[in-house]
Amino acid sequence: MHTTISSEKGLKELTTLGLEANRNKYALQWKKDGKKVAGLLCSYIPEEIVHAAGVLPWHVFGTWQAGTPHANEWRPADTCLYCNHVLEALLTDRLDFLDAVVGTDWDQELVRLWDVWRYVEKTPTTLIIDVPIINTDTAVKFLAQQFHKFIGEMEKLAGRPITDDDLMRSIAVLERTRHLVKRLYELRNAETPAFTGTEMLGLTTAAMLMSKEEFNDRIEALLPYLEKRKIPAEKSRPRLLVSSDRLDNPGHLAVIEEAGCVVAMDDLDTGSRHYWRHVELSSASSPTLRQEIVSALARRYLMQPASPRMMNWQDQVDQVVNWVRDYNIQGVIELPQGFSRYREFRANFFRNKLEEAGIPIMSYRREYIVSNVGQVKTRVGAFIEMIESKA
User: Fold this and answer.
1) 123-143 in b/e burial notation, b at 16+ Cβ within 10 A?
2) Minimal CA–CA distance to 46: which of 161, 158, 169, 144?
3) Side by side, which strands form the sheet with 56-59?
4) What stretches of the chain adopt beta strand conformation (E)?
5) In angstroms, rounded to a whole number, what is the distance separating the alpha carbons of residues 247 and 87?
C-alpha cells in the first residue's frame, strides 16, 4: 500500500508540474544552482543543442489568467492567443528568470511575438530560427545550416565550446526521454488505459519544464507501477483522439473526458508530435561527425509528425489515420485555437479526408485558457452519442 500511495503521489507531482503555480519550479532551482535557462517558443527548436550547452531547455507557456491587458497594448486581442498570453506573462515579470528566449517562424504571429520580446529587452539573449515549411533534402540542408548557427549562439550563452561529445551525450539523453514517453503512449493503447489523456498531457508537458535526466529517472522509477495501473473501466470508452497546436493546459482534455470518454491518443505539439520521431545518425552520409550530428538533428525536427504550418497535409492526415487505427480510436476532436491561421487554412482538407476514411470528427474553436466549459461538454456529449449510435 505504501508503494502504491508513493507512486500515485509521484505521478501527481509530474502531472501537475505544468500548472501555472508549479511550472517555474525546476527553472528557478536551475538558476539557483548557477546555471542558465533558455525559453523555447516552438517544438521545432533542437533541445539537444540547448542541453549540450549545459542550459535548461524550458518550454514557454503563457499565463492562464483570463485577461491580457498588458499584451493588448502591443498586440491586437484578435491574434494568436498563445502569443498574447505568453506576452502577458513576460510583461508582468513572470519570465524574468530566462537567460535566453528562442523562437521560430512557425507563423508570423510567433515572429511578431519575438519582435516585441526583443524590443522590450527583458531577456538578455533573443534568438530565432528559420524553419522550412517543406521537408525535402534541400530543406533539411537549410535547417542544418540554421542549427550550426544556433550552436554558435548557444556557445556564446554558455561561455564555452559545445563539443561533438556534448552533442552525442545530449542526443542520448533526449532519445531516452522519447523512448520513455513512447512507452507511456503504449500504455494508453491498452483496452483500459493506464491513465487519462489529461494525465498524459501533464506528463508530456512536465518533460518540457524540468531536467531531462530527472524526468527520465522519475518515469523509469514509476513505470512498474504505471504498467499495472488502470483508469476505471467505465471511463475508458469511447476512445477519442484530440488534435490541436499550442495546447499546454490539461484542463482542456479534462473537460472533454468529463463528458464521458477517454482521450486515448493525441495529435499535439505538446504531446505525441513532440516525441514521436527519433534522431538517426549515419556517419556515411557526411564528411565529419559534427556535420552528421547536425544533419541528423535537422532531419529529426523537420520530419517529425507535422503541424499544419507544414505543407505535407496529406502526410499529416495519414499520421492521424494511422494513430486512429493503432489506438482503436472511435472519433477525432479537433480543437483549433482561436486565430490559429494555419489550422484554419487546413480545416476543410483535414475534415474531408478523415470523413473519407470513415472517421467521425468534430471541431470546436477553443480559447488558450479553459473556458465555455458547459458548451464544450454539450458538444462533446452530442458527438459521443453520435459515435455510440453508429457502433
Assistant:
1) bebbbbbebbbebeeebbebb
2) 144
3) 56-59, 37-40, 100-104, 125-129
4) 37-40, 56-59, 100-104, 125-129, 239-243, 262-267, 331-334, 361-363
5) 16
CA distance 25 to 67: 24
Q: Which three cell numbers stand for residue 168?
A: 552525442
Tell me the C-alpha distance between 315 and 318, whole Å: 5
Write down all domains in the chain, each with its CATH number in brackets. 22-145 (3.40.50.11890)
Cβ proximity of 258 and 196 under 8 Å? no
Q: Quick check: helix, strand or coil at residue 344?
A: helix
Write out the three cell numbers for 231: 483508469
Confidence band for 6, pLDDT divided at 50, 70 and 90? confident
The 10 Å Cβ neighbour count of residue 159 is 9
Q: Is pLDDT above 50 for 1?
A: no
Instruction: Give the residue with greater pLDDT, 285 vs 293.
Output: 293
Is the model's pTM score more than 0.90? yes
pLDDT tens-digit readout, 149-165: 999 999 999 999 999 99
Q: Which three cell numbers stand for residue 303?
A: 520530419
- Rounded-to-integer distance, Cα 49 and Cα 38, Å: 11
Cα 124 from Cα 118, distance rounded (Å) = 9
pLDDT at 283: 60
61 CB-side CA count, 13 A: 25
The Cα–Cα gap between 278 and 175 comes to: 7
Q: Which helix (H) or strand (E) holds 325?
A: helix 313-326
